[in-house]
Description:
Elements: H1 2-10, E1 25-31, H2 38-46, E2 55-61, H3 68-77, H4 81-84, E3 87-91, H5 99-110, E4 115-118, E5 123-124, H6 129-139, E6 144-146, E7 149-151, H7 157-178, E8 190-193, H8 194-199, H9 215-225, E9 229-231, E10 239-241, H10 247-259, H11 267-291, H12 297-321, H13 331-351, E11 354-356, E12 359-361
Parallel strand pairs: 1-2, 1-4, 2-3, 6-9, 7-10
Antiparallel strand pairs: 4-8, 5-10, 6-8, 11-12
Amino acid sequence: MIRFLIGFDRVSEFKFLNTSSKVSFSVIIPFRNESESLPQLLASIKGLNYPLKHVEFIFVDDDSTDNSVSIITKYVKGLEDSTKSNIRILKNVRAFASPKKDAIQTAIQHAAHEWIITTDADCSLPKNWLQCYNAYIQKHEVIMIAGPVSYHKGSSFLSILQYIEFHTLQTVTIGSFGIENAIMCNGANLAYTKSAFSSVNGFQDNNTIASGDDVFLFEKMYRLDKKKVHFLKSEAALVTTLPEKNWKGFIEQRVRWASKSSHYKNSFTKLVGLLVVLGNLGFVTGFLLTIFQVFTLQFLLVIFVLKATADFLLYQKFNRFFTREQKPSFYIISSFVYPFVSTFILILTVFSGYTWKDRHFMK
């Protein structure tokens, strides 16, 4: 954890100036039944500060059964004629066992520009998002750029639990770049070149795994040339997304995330994952042994304080840099509950599949 904290500070903050808008982007947004989220995304697209001649938005419909397509269509009709062609809706062409990888593959085949950026339909994009990427690409020789992601604020305990967990993971992500052993990224804010995507054969070799459109591609790009895979540490590039609304959705999502971990190629990534599992499992075991009076309460408190302090330092590091809300009053409760939730998810990951967008997938 100390290494990740040091690594976070080693990744330089990127402050872009008034760089000329030269880079063209194809922004890919797969969606399935996102009628509630799309209006917010479309509003943020409308507010982007970037010349429309240098960007296209490709929405890929993955067999939506709600009115998602009509929402996008209505939005396009309200645009000026000169800008309508910048937004397209494609039908997903299924080829793999992963609908989302299929959607990205479909869009890349129709993309007009060299630089691809993926995001999700439940995201909001900051106004200088593309300007920030544009400036970074002109300043650095890169083939892939991982961007920061945060959750929208929520008031429920579940949303706060996700807020704390997700921001802790973001610190680990950025910190891993700082120690030159990057372990993950997030497909809600990820940019790469079409040529690099082609060089690593896209999603080939992991197309039988439903999720992992971001991490597995990232691992391949990192092996191709790690010096050209960077993290864009800038508030101007911070994409916000929605937490899961209920416990069922949260657990399904985390089981999906955990299910792909056994397929990681990077041994350091696996080691970090194992340490996290052992940390949570160790606390749960210690709690049970305390109940049966094998451990003393004082010993359990020492374990809890050590773990909670390490996690809090990671959580706070991200929030301070990106000026996110701290929510310290809920942190202690979340720190106690999370190991039990994590252990439950681990058990489900071993013995069951998961549901994603109303489809069931096996591990």
